[in-house]
Each structure stands twice: as C-alpha cells, then as structure tokens.
Amino acid sequence: MGQVTELDQGEWRFVESGRLVPEAVVSAVGYTSHLRRPVLHRGLPSPALTLVLTFDEPVTSGFEPTGEDAGSSHLVLGGLHTRPAYIAQPRVQSGIQLAVRPLALRQLFGVAAGELRDQAVDARAVLGEGAEDLRQRLAELTTWPERFAALAAYLRAGADRVTAGPRPEVVEAWKWIAWHRGTGSMSALARHVHLGERQLTSIFKAELGVTPKAASRLMRFEHARQRIARTVREASSLDLAAVAHSCGYYDHSHLVREFQQYAGCSPTRWIGDELRNIQAGAGQPAQEFPV
C-alpha cells in the first residue's frame, strides 16, 4: 500500500497514503479537523473523480456558494466538472478523500465516469450495498494504516468483479493528453489514436462526460494548480507569469481567466482563501505528469 505520511497544521491534520491501489487512485488522504467555526471550502475542477467517506457529520456540497442546490451524504462521489464545487465543512470532522482516476471507475464498479458528469452523487449508488458497511468499519478502526488497508481491499475486490474496461482509444487519448499536460492539439490527438475528431469526441465524452478539449483544459489547469500549491508549500516567491508560461497559457491574463472560470476567483484570492489547507497538505495531485 505504501508509506503513510502525517501532516499537522494547527486546526487540520492530514494523513497521506503512499500508493493506495495506484492503478485506480491518484491520491488518498485521511483528514481530521477541529475548526474554530464552520467554513465553506471551494473544491476546484480537476482531471479526477472525488470520493469522500466521512466518519462524522455528512458532507454537504453543491455548485452554488449559497448551498441552494446542496445535498448531504456520508459518502459522496463527484464526477468531472468545470466549475467550483462548494463544501460546507463543520467544526469537527474526519474521513478519507480519494482522487480516483476517471477511467478506473468502470474497472472498479462497472460504471462509466460519464454518468456522473458535472454532479456529485451518493456514492452508495455506485459503490454498491457494502459501501455503508465499509464506511462504518473504517470509522471504527483505530489507525490510519488499518483504514487505508481496508479501503484498498474493498477497491481491489470491486476491480476483481468487473471485467469490462473503457475502449482502448479512450484510454490512449487520456494518456496522450496527460503526457502533453493538456497543451496538445485535438487534430494531433485524433491522428494519434487513428480516429476522426468527431468520432473521438463522441466516444470520449460518452465514457468520461467531457470532451477531449475540456479534458485538456482540466489537465492544463491541474498542472498550474500543482505548481502554485507547491510554491506556496515551499514558501517560495510566486511568479504567476512564469507559471502561465510553463503550463502552456498564452499569458498571465489567460491563466487568471481560467482560474475565474474553474475556481470562481483569481489565483491570488484562491491562495488567500485556501492558504492553511494548502500548507497543511490538502489538495493532493489529481493527475501525475511526466517530468
């Protein structure tokens, strides 16, 4: 399963699991918090599905800051989305959050990520009847290594039951987009997988819920977010123009506009709002990129 790393930042405590089912999960983080007051957290779009299992109060989340569209559940699975999701965080909470590879959802549970497009659902509808038993068992275990091991066993059991995977052209297209960090052209991508652009768009969107172009934008944004978060954690000087250039944006203004769409605010506002979470290790990578 890999090494378990603990990070403590005052009100927040995060525990990372090194390699939890790496073919299906990009990152796994256990968390506990004792906040001075409830807060509203902004969840950014990313090229990963988000699975949350909470051990205390249910998660309340939605796509509007006011919470008018919010729903509550102890198990939440969010699909790929292109706007910020808002999560109401109570003062005391604990649980596990996973960044799940979109193409792995079908292999784990026989469901295409496209069925979750731009929405968060009660994960029991996808994970199966044993999901609630799993959540309660994880809450009763006393150490994070035990919890991660039990969760990994559950996910691997799901993978063993499902034999059908995504079309190989979609798998290869996703790898190509990640390799280029979202900066490759759609015509070059179509040629790479030996399909016409229209056909590729159709099968890609059916499987993942977004077009190849939208997935590329998510990849590029994720690359920029990771660079910004790493700079903040290292307490280094942040040069947004340099980040924009290195991540394939036309200029600094282009990066800011992308943040306005995906985060609902500027990069500097996002850093200010999420500073303690970023420093504490929240927002783990949702996609690995080649060096």
UniProtKB/TrEMBL annotation:
Residues 185-273 form the HTH araC/xylS-type domain. Keywords: DNA-binding, Transcription, Transcription regulation. It comes from the Bacteria. It comes from Saccharopolyspora rhizosphaerae. Pfam families: HTH_18. This is AraC family transcriptional regulator. Gene3D superfamilies: Homeodomain-like (1.10.10.60). GO terms for molecular function: DNA-binding transcription factor activity; sequence-specific DNA binding.
